[in-house]
Amino acid sequence: MSKTAKKRRFSIQVKLMILLLTVIIALTVAMAAVMYRNMRGVLMGEAVSEMNLFCRERGMEIEDSVATVSQWLLRQVESLDSLDELSQNKDLRDKILNQAESMLLLSAKRIEGAETIYFRYPLDLVDQSEEGAFFVRNADGEFRKEPLTQVLEYDKNDNKHVGWYYLPIEAGEPMWMSPYLNENINVTMISYEEPVYCGTTLIGLIGMDIDFSRMVEDIDEIQYKETGYMYLKEADGSLHYHPSYLEGEDIHGDEEDTIISGSDEMEKSVSDEAVHYTFRGGDRVMVFMTLRNGMKLVLCDSYREIFRVANETLSYQMIIAIAMFAVAAAVMVLISSHITRPLRKLAAAANQLSTGDYEVEFPNETGDEVGDLTRAFRTAVEHLKQYSDDMEVLAYQDGLTRVKNVAAYKIEQSALNDAIESGHAVFAVVMLDLNYLKDINDKFGHSAGDIVLMRTAAIICRTFPLSAVYRIGGDEFTVILKDTEYECRSEKISELEMRIKTNNENAREPYMRISAAYGLAVYDADTDHSYTDVYRRADKKMYQMKQAVHSRKSRQA
Predict the structure, then answer these.
(1) Residue 400 falls inside a structural domain
(2) What are phi and psi of 122, to 5 degrees?
(3) At what angle do helices 437-444 and 446-463 cross, to 10 degrees?
(4) Cα distance between residue 458 and residue 474, in whole Å
(5) pTM of the predicted model as reported, rounded to 2 decimal places
(6) What sign does the dihedral 515-516-517-518 (CA atoms) show?
């Protein structure tokens, strides 16, 4: 083995080792930067998961439970002959009410924190009488039936006593009410109300009240890391709900928060990034999401604590990453003498060639043995590609006219049938047949006939430069129109006629004059089930034109 060969092989190993070490260092640095940059996103993702859990446990269960009762009521009313029967027959209303009570109790018992549930017939339906059912949870956790709130005894605008009745009716759709003190039972509530309509007629009102104090306390007990906590606030930020607020103490809203960065996030329903702010001198960070009742659930923590956790986590991850990369580097150095990047690329190129794909990527040519192999491989592929292109031309091109041949036509037929079957076919077929070609061959020789065929093919190709042209028989040509030339097919037929006429006017020899019959057929999805159906219609039109040409010539003779 010569010294030059040894030097070349050694240079490959050195280059590979330098490359691997460079990649390892670059990946380590990049990973550190990405980890640090994305740490906030990781922390926010954890917070949002906790918030989504609470939202699912509260909002959806309450709304679904009330909707179950409302749908049952609607089915009962729709089975009646008319709504007058419900409004005029109190015994019928009492019967429906008695059946509804068991469903109301079942729904309320499923919801933790539900304090009351009720069903009311609307006053307008029952001639201003107070009819319905009202259940309140007692100290033992059981629901007891209580007298109905007398809606007519209060002013319509008295939301503390009767807002639960009038506001959903005015809205005309299910709604969550803002927290309020229900003076009927002296409990701060947050309520979900659903008016039930049969067509456009209000037939009932179903609602459930949740102990808002308990909800606020549950949220307040949720801890995030060591110093983080959660709370509810109004959609506009006017009030922050903490347990101290429910006791009439520490009443405040967003006005005490001074935003340092992330003010754009405050306008969103769900924060994408943490909002950095100060609250009463404390440096803090918050994320939030909007519940289905419009209120916002907020998670906050101290700014220093958030990034202390991030830095500690980043340090641990960096130590692990460096250790893993060190092991990987050692392994790659050991195998670098056996597996090189250029050789892998050549192997990949060989595999790609075996599938018939000649657009392969070669490694850069170097001054060693791999470079010599690469150059030889590249030259061989170029010759093979040229040979393949030549063979494809011979296989799919008509030798005389240079348009596509029958083999290519059959491939296009198959593709069009697939498009028809999938419902995406849009095309037209032009069938063209030369008249009197046999007479020209007999009178002037086959060379003259070949000239006519070539001139005809040239005229067709110039007329339809964007479409595939096929010679499918001795004197038969087919054109498949798509896209632009499909849209202007009528104009293209006129252009074809004009070009044939111009050719005939300028023909230097009698046999150069072209007489052709043609037919155009457009694919119709309602009547055509395959390409053959379209082709037959084009062929029929062409044959009719050919008969007309021959008949006209016979009369002239």
Answers:
(1) no
(2) -65, 145
(3) 140
(4) 16
(5) 0.42
(6) negative
